[in-house]
Amino acid sequence: MEYLRLLYTEYLFSPDPAVYRAHVQLFHFFPVVCILQSAITTPMGKTSVKSFLNLPGKLSWILMELISPLSFFLTFYLNTPTTPLKTLTSLPISHKILSILYLIHYLNRALISPLRAPAYAPAHIIVLLVATYFNYLNGYSLSSFLLLQQGQIPQTGVWRWKVRMILGVGLWIVGFWGNIWHEDVLYEIRRRAKREHLETARTKKEDGLGEGVERVLVPEQRRLVVKAENTGHVYEIPEGGLWEYCWHPHYFMEWIEWTGFLIAAGGWECAPAINFLVNEIASMTPRAFQGVEFYKRKFGRRLPERKAVVPFLL
């Protein structure tokens, strides 16, 4: 028990500068791991594969995403003489804003978003383990940064701080809202697919139709869908917003969100924010290109021409 106590107080959740730097440096290896994703198919989401090591998608998502705010809070809880809430309220205003943005993001990402989603594809246990460690590093390093960097803003730099915070928070809000809006387009496709599958099952029973795969274009509704009647899966081309220009606008908007967070955090002064943004781009870009290949397999030549993740560029 003493060993475990020392493990989480002296290493896992310690804001000691040397320990903090070691954890931040560990973050530097994740882009290398993420680049390897381009050589394999990530076993989650639309590219999920059948395996006895698969876990329920929604549960896996909630568990691995909750690690970030839990790690964030535990680092505060174990290293403050008062309660974490009192410590947070005693931080400089910039740190309070960053904490609020961070926790709002994970409230949505870990709880609200998966509870709103109709379904998540199964996730491989390897995805859960890697994401859990990544999210631990993310929550710990940002919390330690806030505890270690508690200096007040010099009076000569107040105007720069105000511009930085207004720009960063504004960009964060745009990215946060854009991510939710574009994800909701996908959720509505799944909800509609479920409704239509139930209707198809009813009419098929009434008409005596057999099982099979049907490709259907519904021009009056501008909907291009692929229906697999034997499984009930329905795949549809997302429409609206930045979906008209790229296949993963929810990824792109999340990058905008964390770019805003990085600006608000002071840019190069906040290593955890830099690490997180770089790692997000490194991990999500291969998945975006894998997603494009997924759409090509489903829709073939009917697939509209769009970029993978960044409108007009990538």
UniProtKB/TrEMBL annotation:
InterPro entries: 3-oxo-5_a-steroid_4-DH_C, SRD5A/TECR. It is found in: Membrane. Keywords: Membrane, Transmembrane, Transmembrane helix. GO terms for molecular function: oxidoreductase activity, acting on the CH-CH group of donors. One of its GO terms (cellular component) is membrane. It is a multi-pass membrane protein. Residues 227-314 form the 3-oxo-5-alpha-steroid 4-dehydrogenase C-terminal domain. This is 3-oxo-5-alpha-steroid 4-dehydrogenase C-terminal domain-containing protein. The lineage of its organism: Eukaryota, Fungi, Dikarya, Ascomycota, Pezizomycotina.
